[in-house]
Amino acid sequence: MLNFERVKITNEPVEKRLKSFDIEPVRGYTDQEGVTEASRCIGCNICTQACPASLDIGGYIRSSALSDPAETVRIVFENLPFPAIIGRVCTHMCEDICVLDDTGGPIAIRHLKRYAADKFDDYGRILDLPKRRFIGKSVAVIGGGPAGLTAAYYLAIQGVSVTIFEAMPELGGFMKMGIPRYRLPQEVLDKEIGFITSLGVKVRTSTKVGIDVQFQDIMNEFDAVFLGVGNHKARMTGTPGSDARNILHATEFLRRVSYGEKIDVGKNVVVIGGGFTANDSSRTSMRLGAENVYIMYRRREIDRPGYPSSNAEEEMEETLEERVNYMWEVTPFEYVQEDGKVVGVKYWQNEMVMEGRGRAKPVPIKEKVNFLPADMVIEATGQETDFSFLGNDYLRKLRLTPQGHVIVDQNGMTSIKGLFSGGDSTNINRDLISAVRDADAAVLGILNYLNVMDQIADEKWLPVLDRWKKYSPSAAIKSA
Ligand SMILES: Cc1cc2nc3c(=O)[nH]c(=O)nc-3n(C[C@H](O)[C@H](O)[C@H](O)COP(=O)(O)OP(=O)(O)OC[C@H]3O[C@@H](n4cnc5c(N)ncnc54)[C@H](O)[C@@H]3O)c2cc1C
Ligand code: SF4
Q1: pTM of the model
Q2: Rounded to the nearest whole angstrom, what is the distance from the C-alpha of residue 57 to the centroid of ligand 2?
Q3: Could you give the angle at the alpha carbon of 79 between the alpha carbons of 422 and 130, nearest 5°?
Q4: Position 162 in a domain
């Protein structure tokens, strides 16, 4: 009998996974599970339209169904050099439009990428990349996160000399210092980042542009520059009492933990916010020994960042399983201190008020003051990009949106000639796959700008963009 049900993705028991940062909550598929799940796909490739990086999803799922995971990895590498990373933490918007949603559940697209990628320790052996050579052009990449690493990969395999400047001691950006190790193991990062750097990419870590080296000097020395600097300037709420010693911004908290610090979070932790960062901070706190963790969000559950999506639902399910408490529609208005340390949070319950046709607005009901004890408060209230490293002259020339994102043209070039940009500093999605897509676009833009398209070693290894156009109804009509 035909079985249309999605092959179940299983989790490690909560008690086991809470004991360690080394245990991934979600188990990978076995060979049999991978092939069975991939075989459910009907190959319509509608999902490619939902993928920001336009991966040939139907193509790579088909190769997994045919027990050829190496081909799956090769197809993924056409647009994306981190299949095992993205196979774990992608927001997988593709699954939300899979036509099999009502027929046993969407294909487990993200999980199948992980299944295929985890089978190989050395991608070099299966990819058949062009021979190493140098075409006489050099590009600086500022920022070693997913955007910068993707740009470095596709430029390097075409023979461009690439140097990455990274402020932190290790590459990875938020893949290293944001997303916790239980969701994204260090070995997976090492394998995929190590593969990129093995292609001859020069790396200058612990080098902050604007301090250790001047931006102007980089612009003078290189033929083009790619900015993948993310958004790392913490936005704090400024709630009265914020100067207490045990109040941290989530990105500082997660960064310190990712570099091995065992922060004493005490018994009760309050996390302010509602997105990825709030969930990761709460689950990290549980692993650091907290007994009660509360996420306070000022809007409703349905208003949280990333919702509605299966990714947001899965994330919340895992967080609830780990006994984190969500408090919706609350406004913290004072961090109560004793001897310079926070001991609790005063808050109001909100009511959501519709104003015209816009989003419902949280309005605090101030008659009743509530109190929640806290040994630590973590503010997961967002970040912005710090462009000060550019210096005043370049800052004046760089066009930004009113929200502070870099404006780029269809080639990924900013308002400054030869300066390209992508990732969190540039797009509004602020997720990994969008950073990869931006870098893909910029690589084509850079190669065109450098006037080296006629020297491309192998077109097969140019990042493929807008593949979905091939599958769209209008393309079908044109080709008929
Ligand atoms: C806690 C957390 C969890 C997340 N979870 C997910 C998830 O599950 N799925 C998902 O898709 N996305 C997730 N995201 C978002 C995702 O990590 C980002 O969208 C992505 O990392 C952006 O890539 P980027 O390359 O633009 O920037 P980043 O990853 O931020 O990398 C930028 C790099 O530039 C460096 N840099 C900045 N300024 C300078 C300078 N002046 N000189 C030198 N180097 C500099 C920084 O040190 C950093 O390493 C999460 C983010 C956080 C914070
Ligand atoms: S939408 Fe679903 S069925 Fe269609 S190709 Fe994508 S994964 Fe396969």
Answers
A1: 0.96
A2: 7
A3: 110
A4: yes
